[in-house]
Write a structure and sequence with these properties.
The protein has 81 residues and is α+β, with helices and mostly antiparallel strands. The chain has one domain. It has 2 helices and 4 strands, in the order ββββαα. A 4-stranded mixed β-sheet has the order 2-1-4-3, with no helix packed on it. The chain is elongated.
Length: 81
């Protein structure tokens, strides 16, 4: 294998802003942000959502019928009874 062609594989802190939780995972992602955890500084990636805060995984998902799509479908094709 050639030297210097592979990205650096290191521990990176992924912070979920919605749940205020930090995951430490090994990754090759490039980032300029850092985060200090237990006295050790890690490269950091800020996330909007993760499995801790996403409605699908937390069970708080809501089905919203915007614009009456179900009603339009039933009106157009008729509801089978």
């Amino acid at each position: 294998m050639k030297d210097g062609i592979h990205p650096e594989y290191r521990t990176v802190a992924f912070k979920d802003g919605a749940a205020d939780h930090v995951f430490l995972i090994r990754s090759t992602v490039k980032t300029k942000d850092t985060l200090k955890i237990d006295g050790t500084e890690y490269p950091a990636v800020m996330l909007d959502t993760s499995s801790l805060s996403h409605p699908f995984y937390t069970g708080k998902q809501k089905v919203v019928d915007t614009g009456g799509r179900v009603g339009k479908f039933n009106k157009r094709y008729g509801a089978k009874k």
